[in-house]
Write a structure and sequence with these properties.
69 residues; mainly alpha; 2 helices
């Protein structure tokens, strides 16, 4: 448990808890896992967007250079 808490503090959203025998705890773990999956996906998207825009900019900029604008 401590290792998982430390990973969360370090913003490591790859943490997953194992289900237990308790229904309430399992419900919490399921919600927690979905929340972290969404955070992980948002982080990936936010990291990929600047790269994509740089590529688009370079392509667009190159087109203007090739026609002399």
């Amino acid at each position: 448990m401590k290792t998982s808490v430390d990973a969360i503090k370090d913003e490591d959203f790859n943490v997953q808890f194992l289900k237990t025998g308790s229904g309430e705890i399992n419900d919490f773990i399921e919600v927690f896992t979905k929340m972290f999956e969404k955070l992980r996906q948002e982080r990936v998207t936010s990291q990929e967007q600047p790269y994509f825009f740089r590529i688009c900019y370079k392509c667009f900029d190159h087109r203007y250079d090739s026609i002399g604008l």
